[in-house]
Amino acid sequence: MMLFSITANAQFLLTPNGFVDSLDTSKSYVVLNAADKSQQDLYIATKTYIISKYNSPKNVISENMPISLSIYGHKDIVAKTMGMPLEHSLNYKIVFTFKDGKIKVEPYIVSYTTSEGLDIALFSKQGEIRKVTRKLHSAAQDYINDIVNSLYVSIENPQEDEW
Prior knowledge:
Elements (H helix, E strand, L loop, with lengths): L11 E4 L2 E4 L8 E4 L5 H15 L3 H4 E4 L3 E14 L2 E16 L2 E13 L19 H23 L7
């Protein structure tokens, strides 16, 4: 039995206006459908996933049990810029909202900076991905999609707690 009605492929596109649903770009969120799971079950499964993935989960989670969870995360991304590997910092927020049978997932980029703390503009004034930031754009988009996709997999195929 398939738990979600969406596939576990890339779900978000990163645009000049933030993340949007790849199937409906008018929406800044996706809804994962889990008809056989209660709001409480989905909340617990998502929180369990977050706890397993972050070094210090209490420092990244904000919660309103069982309605919502937010992650305030940080990811260092190394990408070549003008031929030189440089470290960049992606600071993001993902809000998970729960109802019986559904999880609404809404990601945001809080900041994207160089190792010196300077803001990075991923898009030109015309809304195009800047040539020098293509790899950074892809890395940010892929990273957020990986979080959502691995959450999908962890809920669809929960691991038994065998000791």
